[in-house]
Specification:
The structure is a single chain. The longest helix has 89 residues, at 2-90. This protein has seven helices and no strands. By secondary structure, it is mostly helical.
Length: 288
Amino acid sequence: MMSEFKDFLETKRKIMDKKATKHREERDAWHGKSKDSASKRNELNAGTRELLVQVQEQKTIRDQLNEVVREKKAARQKTSDAVKNIRSSIQPNTEGEEDKGKHRRKGRPETVIGHKKKLERLEREYETQARGQKARKKMEDEMRELYRRIKKLEDEQKNLEDSDDLRKAMDENNKAFEELQEAADKAQLAHDNMIQWSNEVESQRTEAEQAHRELRKCQREADNQHHLYIVSLRCLHSIQEMIRAIRAAESGETQRPQAREEVQDLMSKLLAGDTLSTDELMQLQRYD
C-alpha cells in the first residue's frame, strides 16, 4: 500500500511540476508583453508631448500672422482708397441730371462696353426696322450721343492710364495686395499645420490609451498566472514533503537535511505572504 501511495504521489508531483512550470512561463510571457505595451505607451506619450509643443508653436505663429494680415488689410484699404480718389480727381462727374436719367441706371456707372452694346442694338434696329422720319431722326441723335459718350469715356480712360500719380498709387495697391496675400497664405499654412498636428495628437493619444489598456490587461494576466504559479508551488511542496516523509520513515532518518530546512523556510515566507525572488521560487520547485 505504501509503495502504491508513493507512486500516486510521484505521479501527482510530476503533474503539479508541469503546471507550475507552465504558469511560470506564461507569467513571464505576459510580463514580456507588459514591457512591450509600456514601452509603446511611453513612446506614444512622448511623441504626443512633442506634437503638443509643435501645435502651440503653430498656434502662436498663426495668431501673430493673423495680426499681420489685419494690418496688411488696413494698408491695402488705404492704397485702394488712394486709387479711387485719384481716379475721381482725373475723371470728375460732369453729367447733368438729364444725362444721368438717359444713359445711366441709378447706382450703375457708365462703361464703354455698356454703351457699345446699346449702340450695336440701335444700329441693328435702324437698319432692319422700317420707321418714320421722326423716329429715325431720334435714333440717329441717340446713336450720335452714344458715339460721343464712348469717345469721352475712352479719352478719360487714356488719361487715367497716362497718370503718373495713378500708376504709382496702383503699384502701391498691387504691392499691398501681394503682401496681404503672402501674410494670409502663411497664416493659413500655420493654421493647417496646427490642425494636422492636433489631429495627430488625438490619434496618438488614442493609440497610447489603447496601449495602456493592453498593458493593464497583460499585468492582470501576469498576476493571475503568478498566483496560479504560487498555488502550484504550494501544492508541489506539500506533495514533495509527503514523499520525503515516506522516504525518511522507510530509511529511518530522523533529522531533516539543511537544504530542506532552507526550502521550508522559503515556503514559510511564501505562505506568510512575503515576496520571494525568482531564484528562491525556482528553488522551491526543485526536487531532491
